[in-house]
């Protein structure tokens, strides 16, 4: 599995927020600003599937721009997201005055709604979804299984049982490391460090980093990531 790190930061930095390309055909999260990179640096020619972890703007805000490009092409697309994705998109089409996108969305895009513990087949990928804890918002983590390796994506979450399930079942995980201190919305770098020591069969890649936690990731000897980095599993 080829994982391209489109962005690896959280909102309050200069760098792009966290987003991934899997084998150039599946996108995990489309944060604000990511469209520029997805379109100009990688192209969207081979995209078939889009996974959204939750509807905060640093995971979802550029989806309408990606849809605008895909809707001009032949082909069908699948979006796996928490409940209500299409309704939120239609609100965005209204807010940004692009109502013409409604028709191609109805015709070309299939929307699958995440359920805790459920598996979905997207072409050759088996995707398992886990409900995470991220404030009051419906948020999900994923395991993407291509038949060879299982790679986990925590999305935004604090410590919870679902996170441990993803870690135990995955060969590697891209994990929220937003915070210095433990809190109810995100993981701290300390928590990620402790998890990496406890679950040694899983490779941890801290992402959704801030300027402060980026330094801690390095100081703690955790795997550093960078924008544009490609990791093969
Ligand atoms: Zn969030
Ligand atoms: Zn976030």
Features of this protein?
6-stranded mixed beta sheet, globular, binds zinc ion, Metallo-beta-lactamase, Chain A, alpha/beta, 13 strands, 233 residues
Description:
- With 233 residues, the protein is an alpha/beta fold.
- The chain has one domain (2-221): Metallo-beta-lactamase, Chain A (4-Layer Sandwich), CATH 3.60.15.
- Helices cover 29% and strands 26% of the residues.
- It has eight helices and 13 strands.
- The chain has helices spanning 34-42, 57-60, 63-70, 85-95, 102-108, 161-169, 189-198, 211-219, and strands at residues 2-7, 19-22, 26-28, 49-51, 77-81, 109-113, 119-122, 125-131, 140-145, 150-153, 172-176, 203-207, 230-232.
- It has a seven-stranded mixed sheet with strand order 6-5-4-3-2-1-13. The chain has a six-stranded mixed sheet with strand order 7-8-9-10-11-12, covered by helices on one side.
- The mean pLDDT is 97.
- One zinc ion binds at residues 54, 56, 134, 156.
Mean pLDDT: 97
What string gives the helices and strands in order? EEEHEHHEHHEEEEEHEHEHE
Say what the CATH topology is.
Metallo-beta-lactamase, Chain A
Q: Which shape, going by the Cα principal axes?
A: globular
Topology of this structure?
Layout: E1 2-7, E2 19-22, E3 26-28, H1 34-42, E4 49-51, H2 57-60, H3 63-70, E5 77-81, H4 85-95, H5 102-108, E6 109-113, E7 119-122, E8 125-131, E9 140-145, E10 150-153, H6 161-169, E11 172-176, H7 189-198, E12 203-207, H8 211-219, E13 230-232
The chain binds zinc ion (2 copies).
One zinc ion binds at residues 10, 56, 58-59, 156, 208.
